[in-house]
Amino acid sequence: MAHQGYRQNMKPRARGPSTMAGDPNQLFEDTSAGMPPSQPGGYPNQSYDMGNFSVNNIFGDSVVSDLAMAYGSNLANQSKEMVNKEINRFMPINKLKYFFAVDTKYVVKKLALLMFPYTHQNWEVRYSRDSPLTPRCDVNAPDLYIPSMAFITYILLAGMALGIQKRFSPEVLGMCASTALVWIIIEVLALLLCLYLVTVHTDLTTFDILAYSGYKYVGMILSVLFGLLFGKDGYYVALAWTSCALMFFIVRSLRMKILSTVSSEGMVSYNAKNQIRLYITMATALFQPVIIYWLTFHLIR
Amino acid sequence: MIKLCFSHDLQVLYFNNHIFILYTPLNDTLQAETAALVYLPLDYLLMSFVFEELGINFQHIQQKTLTVLNPLKQTDGSIMNETDLTGPVVFCLALGTTLLLAGKVHFGYVYGISALGCLGMYMLLNLMSRIEVSCGCVASVLGYCLLPMVSLSSFAVFFSLQSIFGIVLAVIVIGWCSLSASKIFVATLAMDGQQLLIAYPCALLYGVFALLTVF
């Protein structure tokens, strides 16, 4: 076998001149023009390349190993498809991808809008052939990139604020993170319940509501930053500013979506159903500053 | 001297722990013989075959490291075609070791944060890009871009970073790491206009590592 021949030659034994002529230990395939006739006939099949340890030789029988590999890969594919199907039932990945189709310009414009929404004119989400435009093309569309990044930034900032005040420990960080998460879940569920009870026919999906609720984290981050830089006064000023801006933003954005009977001039007609919807929108808006204060005041001392 | 191969123009000989390859092409028209002799030390030959079997390609590792070290140069997306986890694992170990030299035993935190960060970035990138990525590719890129952080922590062994200069240096290193990582991701996944958006979560992840290094 060529392998054993190779190993034999590694030991620095001085071989006699008898191996010089017509050495049967050929290790390298002779790629010069044609095989020279002086080759010993039994060896050409066994002259392997040096580093090419073929996998099929590990099992004795290549047919069995091929079959096993095909069966294994088939099984893996089937189980992968099943897992994907189950995940797609709870969290439709394609719908989620819509919320993450953002680019840098959109994020910058949206952040500016969240902080100063008073001069923005057109609050409607634009549609293209019955499906809403992605956030890339329309600054009014909700996205989930900003809320998720803001959530993680908020947790890290809380950790840093506690660290600066020497009150840091991983348990406190975990509690902060889970408190914020639970409050968002409560808010989303409450809004969904209200919308269901009032039987509002909107196209607000769960992810939309999650996005709009998540925008408050940006306000939280700003308040904590100002509180860290400028003390308690800076914190209250930033809190007031971001609360007003966020309330305005929520009311203007959700008005178009929840208050569905809008006449052609854009004026909202005042009947009972619309009043309830208006109350829901105002309640959502008023809830924002409360929760911002609740989740951040303990970080500023 | 042991002859390992005998053909009319190529001879491979073994002598004194070296392999000699002698190529003598026969030129028909001129009948002149020019010979080329190459000799290779045997250990190098053996190790190169071992590395090929293990899938470690030193050229690629060097190329990727140079890409990381120069975050402002353009790169093409094909360098991340094969998932290579040896470099990242080596860099993680180096980070843990330099932290150990500075007196902080944080190996568990380094591994935990890397795992969590890789998982988070994998989910985010799959949602944001049109091309599917594998977790190994994400881990490989994030691990390679950890190299400037290793240099920061080795600097922290000798000088304390809890000063304005140290914090400025840490911020620069975080920016460097996240710029390289986002540059490689954007090139590999063909995402346009999203480099800063990818750089931000990378900066958060490397910021956590910098927190470990500085404090």
UniProtKB/TrEMBL annotation, chain A:
Gene name per UniProt: YIF1A
Cited Pfam families: YIF1
UniProt-recorded name of the protein: Protein YIF1
Highest taxon in the source lineage: Eukaryota
GO biological process: endoplasmic reticulum to Golgi vesicle-mediated transport; protein transport
Membrane-crossing segments per the record: 144-164, 176-198, 210-229, 236-256, 276-295
Keyword Transmembrane helix annotated: yes
Family that this chain belongs to: Belongs to the YIF1 family.
Annotated function: Has a role in transport between endoplasmic reticulum and Golgi.
InterPro entries, per the entry: Yif1_fam
Main localization category: endoplasmic reticulum
Keywords in alphabetical order: Endoplasmic reticulum, Golgi apparatus, Membrane, Protein transport, Transmembrane, Transmembrane helix, Transport
GO CC annotation terms, alphabetical: COPII-coated ER to Golgi transport vesicle; endoplasmic reticulum membrane; endoplasmic reticulum-Golgi intermediate compartment; Golgi membrane
Coiled coil (UniProt feature): none
Topology of this chain in the membrane: Multi-pass membrane protein
Residue ranges of the region described as Disordered: 1-46
From TrEMBL, chain B:
Primary localisation category: membrane
GO BP annotations, alphabetical order: endoplasmic reticulum to Golgi vesicle-mediated transport; vesicle fusion with Golgi apparatus
Subcellular localization, as worded in the UniProt entry: Membrane
Key word Ribonucleoprotein present: no
Annotated keywords: Membrane, Transmembrane, Transmembrane helix
Superkingdom: Eukaryota
InterPro entries: Yip1/4-like
Membrane-spanning segments: 108-125, 137-158, 164-185, 197-214
UniProt topology in membrane: Multi-pass membrane protein
GO cellular component: membrane; trans-Golgi network
Family: Belongs to the YIP1 family.
This protein's name: Yip1 domain family member 7
Organism: Erpetoichthys calabaricus (Rope fish)
Gene: YIPF7
